[in-house]
Specification:
The structure holds 2 protein chains of 2 kinds. Chain A is mainly beta. Chain A is globular, with a radius of gyration of 13 Å. Chain B is an all-beta fold. In chain B, the strands form 2 sheets. Chain B has a 5-stranded mixed β-sheet with strand order 1-9-8-3-4, with no helix packed on it. The N and C termini of chain B lie far apart (37 Å). At the A-B interface, strand 4, strand 5, strand 9 and strand 10 of A face strand 4 of B.
């Protein structure tokens, strides 16, 4: 089944404790991205990757890092999480960066930073 | 990208057609209309997109007015599982960040 998976689905952590949220897709998509969703603000793009070893900042990249060493994986790294990063995070992928193509979203990771 | 306006909420009886409007009066000639939905904090799901012709797929139909300033997403026979927030997004066909702007959408409630 074609899908985007994320782990963990739920995470409660404390300020400053490094964490990684994994994202994997099995559709051989070139394009992957991370969004965060907050009440009243909709989904905002954090980082995106147009292909392996190519990443770029989205609208809200501060406090986040990403890497794209393999085509299928696009982990989101929070080196020193803070409470304002408490949010619902979604990973997405599409065939390429053309907005003509639909994006496939993962199930989401609900992160709470205390 | 053009801004879209959607009603905040709508109700629809189960089995009836759900017609979700979207206003995009500032749309330009190369901008597509996309519809996604999000069921209760799950990942958004693509529904359909179009440029100027009406489109239909297994999930829905998209009707775009001739002047392209508004569109309607039609779910022909709404079920309880169609209860979700529906997002109308206008985006130009271009390469780049493929950053979809999800506004507040329309919360559709299908009533038994």
């Amino acid at each position: 089944e074609a899908q985007v998976t994320q782990n963990p689905r739920y995470l409660i952590t404390v300020t400053g404790k490094k964490l990684t949220v994994t994202c994997s897709q099995n559709m051989n998509h070139e394009y992957m991205s991370w969004y965060r969703q907050d009440p009243g603000l909709g989904l905002r793009q954090i980082y995106y990757s147009m292909n392996v070893e190519v990443t770029d900042k989205g609208d809200v990249p501060e406090g986040y890092k990403v890497s794209r060493k393999e085509k299928r994986n696009f982990p989101l790294i929070l080196e020193s999480p803070s409470p304002n990063q408490t949010s619902l995070y979604f990973c997405a992928s599409s065939w390429d960066a053309s907005s003509y193509n639909e994006q496939f979203f993962g199930p989401g990771t609900r992160l709470t930073v205390l | 990208d053009a801004k879209t306006t959607q009603p905040p909420s709508m109700d629809c009886a189960e089995g009836r057609a759900a017609n979700l409007p979207c206003n995009h009066s500032t749309i330009s000639g190369n901008e597509y209309v996309y519809w996604y939905r999000q069921i209760h904090s799950q990942g958004p799901q693509y529904i359909i997109h179009g440029l100027k012709n009406n489109e239909t797929n297994e999930m829905a139909s998209l009707i775009i007015t001739e002047d392209r300033k508004s569109s309607t997403l039609i779910l022909p026979h709404a079920t309880l599982r169609d209860t979700a927030v529906y997002y109308c997004i206008v985006r130009s066909y271009q390469t780049g960040a493929n950053n979809l702007f999800f506004g507040t959408g329309t919360r559709l409630t299908v009533i038994p």
